[in-house]
Amino acid sequence: MPVPSLVIGIGGGTGAGKTTIAREVTAGVDSVTLIPLDNYYESRSDLSPEERENINYDHPDAFDWTLLREHLLALCEGRTVEMPQYDFEIHDRTGETVTVEPGDAVVVEGILALFDDALTEMMDIRLYVETDADVRIIRRIRRDVAERGRELEGVVAQYLQTVKPMHEQFVEPTKKEADLIIPEGVNDTAVDLLRERVEGVVSGGEHPRP
Q1: Which is nearest to 120 in space by CA: 68, 159, 85?
Q2: For the segment 154-191, what is each residue's pLDDT rounded down to a tens digit?
Q3: Domain with 122 in it: what CATH number?
């Protein structure tokens, strides 16, 4: 298996546009491995559906950092991993996995992608996507209702009770770990510059750090 020449971490608040940035920045790369942080929520099969529903999923303790570290290290070494699959309607892993192979670039994307020190040490480029809170909550509502089968009232309550305070306490402070903060979601100028740098690194011509 080829060893990835570039590892990118993309953090930022819910609905900030992280997935879009990941896609735009790596558009010129032949093979990209995307590792969504959402796939690495802890397994909660020992809890009842009611108990799982009440977990604070925006707190760092909700994630299986050990498994994520192991998988990123394996990919960096050119090995395949079995990435867990997560069902947001039942708040638990499905029990199934997807085989993930290392690409020319590996992208770790999620609200707390820049939170864990061991992970950020493995990243060549660290990005934080900063978008207005009003825009982010609208995107979150649309996603959770349309894609994850949630009720509107529940989504709003969750945002006020956990998402917003966890963003302020844990997510926003990870900006200090970023090499570059991308303002206003998808910023064309920043994306164009990053895409050129990523293409240069993957082709073997440039150092990854901005």
Answers
A1: 68
A2: 777 778 888 889 999 999 999 999 999 998 766 788 88
A3: 3.40.50.300
The Cα–Cα gap between 13 and 166 comes to 10
Q: How far apart are CA 205 and CA 197, in angstroms?
A: 9
Residue 81: how many other CB atoms lie within 10 Å: 21
Phi–psi pair at 86, nearest 5 degrees: -120, 140
- CA 11 to mean position of chain CA atoms: 6
Whether residue 204 lies inside any domain: the answer is no
Checking if the pLDDT of 135 tops 70, the result is yes
Quick check: is 207 in a domain? no
DSSP 8-state assignment for residue 103: -
Q: How many Å apart are CA 118 and CA 156, to the nearest integer?
A: 33
Q: How far apart are CA 68 and CA 159, in angstroms?
A: 25
Q: What global pTM score does this model have?
A: 0.87
Could you give the CA distance from residue 76 to residue 139 in angstroms, rounded to a whole number?
A: 32
* Dist CA 166 CA 182 (whole Å): 20
Question: CA-based diameter of the chain, in Å?
Answer: 53
Residue 75: inside a domain: yes
Contact predicate 82/102, CB 8 Å: no
Contacts of 104 (CB under 8 A, 6+ apart): 2, 4, 5, 6, 29, 30, 31, 32, 202
Give the residue numbers spanning the domain of 82: 6-196
Three-class DSSP category at 197: helix
Q: How many domains does the chain fold into?
A: 1
| 1 part of a folded domain | no
